[in-house]
Amino acid sequence: MKRVALALGAAMIVAGRVMAASTASAQTDLPPAKVQGAITYVSGGIGQDEVNAIRQAAAQYPLELEFARTALPQNEYVSDIKVLIKDHLGRPVLDIISDGPFLLAKLPDGKYTVTADRHGNVKQRTTQIKAQQHVRLIFVWQR
């Protein structure tokens, strides 16, 4: 019984180290955070490691945007999307071009209008950001 407990304990230590290494790797694969005005954001998602890192970090950001276009057999990610986020008074709080198919933004509580422009094809959504909540908006364009 003692050997089983020792083996189980050793296995748990190894599993913990693997998880810690995985978390550290995901954090290093996360694109650097940028700041525009009062908004901190991360944009990217080129390559599977970066996608995994962004997905893991998403819960730390109130707003997550994802950009894709229709394709078969599955939709394809797109980047270089012009993103404009305005507050409830219509004031721009973030105006950037995405570095990849994902954008994470730390926005204060409030109502926002998110505009995503892909080659002149504009999509717009409104959303409410509330404390301790995460909002995910997916924009999909026709091929």
Please describe what this structure looks like.
The chain is an alpha+beta fold. It folds into two domains: 1-30; 31-141, Immunoglobulin-like. 27% of the residues lie in helices and 41% in strands. The chain has helices spanning 2-29, 48-57, and strands at residues 34-36, 39-44, 63-69, 76-77, 82-86, 92-97, 102-106, 110-118, 121-129, 135-141. The strands form two sheets. Strands 1, 2, 3, 4, 7 and 10 form a six-stranded mixed sheet that branches. A four-stranded antiparallel sheet has the order 6-5-8-9, with no helix packed on it. Helix 1 (2-29) packs across helix 2 (48-57). The longest helix is centred in the N-terminal third of the chain and has 28 residues, at 2-29. The radius of gyration is 19 Å and the shape is globular. The termini are far apart. The relative contact order is 0.19. The model is unreliable at 1-26 (pLDDT under 50).
